User: Fold this.
Amino acid sequence: MDHQIGMEKARENLASAQLCFDQGYFNACANRLYYAMFQAAIAVLAQAGLLPAGGRVSHDWLQANFSSHFIHRRKLFSAKLKSYLPEAYRVRALADYEAISVSKNIAANELKKAKEFVAVVNAEVSHATQP
Assistant:
């Protein structure tokens, strides 16, 4: 995937998450905010030429490789971002597959982290593409 398309998808999902939150759809918000972060992570991995052959990216692969390449090795992002993807994934799974719903407080907390995550990754992608 092209890194610019990945960031466009990330921003679209983040905007969708905000709309869902504003309407009180906290489960849908959790789903969209995770995918905003997922697409942003794909974008930065794509820009670095680190996507797997065939371009198919699993959730586990993405979380491990984002953390490994950009937090541990290159120290491009703050270590606190390491927990953002797995936690958003956990909340998304709760929203999508469990018999309980995501609360407003949890959705608000995860949305705040998703906004931070997408902004930080977007800044790196934008910075790296400038001549």
User: Anything to note?
Assistant: The longest helix spans residues 104-129. The chain is about 75% helix and 0% strand. The chain has a mean pLDDT of 91.
